[in-house]
Specification:
single chain; 428 residues; alpha+beta; 9 helices; 25 strands
Length: 428
């Protein structure tokens, strides 16, 4: 298991400041680098990693640190430097806190979580030679078996950081599943939830009542068997999935696909920008390949990234402004027909707030005429306004409208349980 500590500073940590932070363990510890020097590790004398530090990220998107870390964190623009300490060695967590505290002492800013901040030298007194070292090859992975990469997270909100994105890529390349283990108080961001979609990837939640584990998305009870978390034989469901809490909050989900000729003049992102402006009154705030989302919105920049990666696909996360929670998964792929954008935008609404369903037909017409719309499905579901995913039952989305090209079908207000039948009829 690891402990995450983040330094949020108004200035970029330079080499001298980073070295001062890494000196938190005194002269007896060493420094190494992995992941093509993108991660620096503070190591014991025998080379055993204690704290892994990722390269600082400049977060320029307003509200992003507050979305992921809660109120009281430093506002953008801010440099985000994240450290992960192994909990296999008792002093490692204090080392990560002292590293972050030293950065903030020199550069200003705050440490998350606040109680982790310190500047003291932390001497290593544990006999690390008696502590087994997990041979994972990826700093974010805590347990590695022939079938599964396990990441243990103990933070209130688990974002799809570059740590987790790298772990997912490495697991997929090695034909392994990725399983994230959290306490029942944790929630996932939508990008993390999307990354875990589809078995054998799992969100594994420690069950405080049953003394075991359960799947945070399905409720299935789990146990560790054969080097992976798998369902128990009785197919029982954990208690949080036996009742539904309704706070009146809802999420509007717009899933659309566009198709464009592959020309040098093509600029991607305009369809998403149009939907975002239509539903929230403002364009997207920022985009990135992981969380925190750190780059201000720019259709030209994301087009350049996708073009540079072609013919490989590009996956991006897009966020909105803090006053209206909105997140989109943005996928660009090169096909025989040209360039396709697959977009899923989710917008959060509180109790008493009404999504603008009456304007969906006009939106579909604009997308069809101006942005190469192929299909669009709009749905509603009960869900948190802040778009985070708790480990309990969530009702499936109810379709509201379906568009094929220029043909728009209204499917009701999202409250009719028979709406799924209408969708099935339209698709056959």
């Amino acid at each position: 298991m690891t402990k995450d500590v983040i330094a949020l500073t108004p200035k970029m940590p330079d080499i001298r400041t980073l070295l001062a932070g890494l000196y938190a363990g005194g002269p007896g510890l060493g420094v190494d680098s992995v992941a093509e020097a993108a991660v620096v590790q503070l190591c014991a004398a025998d080379g055993r990693p204690l704290v892994s530090v990722e390269a600082p990220i400049l977060v320029q998107v307003p509200g992003e640190t507050e979305r992921l870390l809660g109120a009281g964190s430093a506002s953008a623009p801010v440099w985000w430097t994240e450290a992960r300490a192994t909990t296999a060695v008792a002093e490692a967590g204090a080392l990560a806190g002292s590293f972050a505290g030293r950065l903030v002492a020199v550069l200003g800013g705050v440490v998350w979580p606040p109680e982790a901040a310190a500047t003291d030298v932390v001497p290593l007194t544990t006999d690390v030679t008696a502590v087994p070292v997990p041979v994972t090859g990826v700093p974010a992975v805590d347990v590695l078996t022939t079938s599964t990469a396990v990441v243990i997270q103990d933070r209130p909100l688990v974002p799809l950081t570059s740590w987790l994105a790298d772990a997912l890529r490495a697991a997929t390349a090695a034909d392994r599943s990725l399983q994230i283990v959290t306490p029942p108080t944790s929630r996932l961001t939508l990008p993390t939830r999307t990354a875990l979609r589809g078995l054998p990837n799992r969100w594994v939640v420690q069950d405080p009542e049953g003394g075991g584990y359960y799947d945070g998305l399905s409720g299935a009870r789990l146990h560790w068997q054969g080097g992976t978390f798998a369902p128990v034989d009785d197919a029982s469901v954990a208690q949080p999935f036996t009742a539904v809490s309704d706070a009146g909050e809802r999420q509007l989900i717009v899933s659309l696909r566009t198709q464009h000729p592959a020309t040098d003049r093509l600029v991607l992102g305009h369809a998403l920008e149009t939907v975002w402006q239509h539903l929230t009154g403002a364009p997207p705030a920022g985009w990135s390949t992981a969380e925190p989302v750190n780059v201000p919105w720019s259709t030209r920049q994301l087009t350049d990234l996708a073009r540079g990666r072609a013919p490989r696909p590009t996956w991006l996360t897009v966020v909105g402004r803090p006053n209206r929670p909105a997140l989109a998964a943005f996928h660009v792929s090169r096909t025989h027909a040209g360039v396709e954008e697959d977009i899923t935008l989710t917008v959060g609404y509180g109790s008493g707030e009404d999504p603008p369903l009456e304007t969906l037909e006009h939106l579909a017409q604009v997308l069809g005429v101006e942005h190469g719309l192929a299909t669009m499905l709009v749905s509603l579901r009960p869900g948190r306004r802040d778009l985070t995913v708790p480990p309990r039952f969530q009702a499936p989305p109810i379709p509201v409208s379906y568009t094929v090209g220029h043909t728009h079908h209204h499917l009701g207000d999202g409250t009719d349980p028979n709406t799924w039948d209408a969708v099935r009829q339209l698709s056959t």
